[in-house]
Amino acid sequence: MRKLIAAVALLAAAGCSVSAGAGDGRRTVVVGYQSKTINTVTAGTLLRGLGYLEKRLGDGYRVEWQDYDTGAPITAKMVAGKIDIGSMGDYPLLINASRTQGVAAARTELVSVTGYNLRGGLNSVVVAPSSDVRTLAGLKGKKVSASSGSAGHGTLVQALERAGLDPATDVEVVNQQPPVGASALQSGNVQGYAQFVAWPGLLVFRDQARLVYDGSALDVPTFHGVVVRQAYAKEHPDVVQAFLQAQIDATRYLHEHPVEAAEAVAEATGLPAEVVYLYNGRDGIASFDVTMKPRLLAALDHDQKYLKSIGTDFAGVDVARFANDSYLRKAYGASYDADTASTVNAAKIDGTDEACGTAAGDPAKAGEVWLAGEDRLRPAATPACLLRQVAAATSGGRTVRAAYVPDAATGTHWFADRSVWVRDPAAGEDERFKPFTTQDGAQSYVKEHPGAEIVGYDEALKAAAGQLKAAGGASR
């Protein structure tokens, strides 16, 4: 690593470019991204598919897209001067800054955010469906797969500490790439799997895992962002401006066309569109917003002590120096400060709930139903209303591709049929059924609400069907 940094420094001192030419007179811009880390799609998969960057740069440039499973190889190539712009999660961003901050020729800057979740819901811990582990504490003495230094690893360390466990001694963390860890979980070689978007949702959707810890329980913001080599940005500010403007364009497209965006990302990555939409859709787990919010930067600073405890040869980072929003301010325009102060998800569920006849709009309660053969999702005002929609659809012979509901405590969206449901007889008719992402969350609610009980999804649907019959109608 030191030799690579020294080589890059010598090249810079000699005035040499570390970006390869295209061979046809065009300049090459090398972008490192993670296609399956779908919280970065506005700076990666979706941006590439839409061609916005190429359009912004014009004929004088060629974009070389390099795809990786994690942020680590992107950082290594940025240190070597072989990637100009990269996107990755918060923990890898800190490692990126740490690895590059000592040499001016290799130093990077955080220039924008792709997406975030203010509670930490982009990272989760899952176990095998047949596992007897029901809470994070149940992983004591077991093996957990995680990508060392990743956002998922960082969440695991913080969550174990909150649960009263020593991350260094009470569990054995096995350093594995996400697809390798997924296979290890299925084979039984590890008993837990701590990863970032979209791996936990993918495994749960495929019935290959069960959520045991929702990162939202931490209530610590997590995000992904874009870094650029500082020397490259100073030499080619027009390229950085073009990239950020293209990212803003892609973000707007995602907000205005969430289903089309999910389908496009699914086609490019092989991920199910239903999983992509869980994170990237209306009121999804990820809020897409390029602005660098103070709460996100504060969380990045907060994460440093946990990254040091992981033992990744991490030196401290001056986050205020690392984050540079000057390029973004220029690309964004006059509303930058106002939008930076806002945390409202621009892709919001709205419309009329066909089962309950009320408006859907409260992000703490609103969900959506995706029926096969439809290119739109049907809004649901509450989880109970969503159950009625699903019951009506299935009784009418329709196939439900996916139904999304917010956790009653954290607001994290999850698949309705993979959620843990609670029936609370003391609640109003449209509020009686409450979903939770984990068994732990449901049990906490039951403990605090006498008369409430955990029920199966099928039982909740049956009750919803009975309500429809009693009302003498159903949604179409």
From TrEMBL:
Domain Solute-binding protein family 3/N-terminal, residue spans: 40-257
Alphabetical keyword list: Signal
Top-rank taxon, per record: Bacteria
PROSITE patterns named in the record: PROKAR_LIPOPROTEIN
UniProt KW Signal keyword: yes
Signal peptide from the UniProt entry: 1-22
Gene3D superfamilies in UniProt: Periplasmic binding protein-like II
PANTHER family with a match to the protein in the record: ABC TRANSPORTER SUBSTRATE-BINDING PROTEIN, ALIPHATIC SULFONATES-BINDING PROTEIN-RELATED
Family: Belongs to the bacterial solute-binding protein SsuA/TauA family.
Name of the protein this chain belongs to: ABC transporter substrate-binding protein
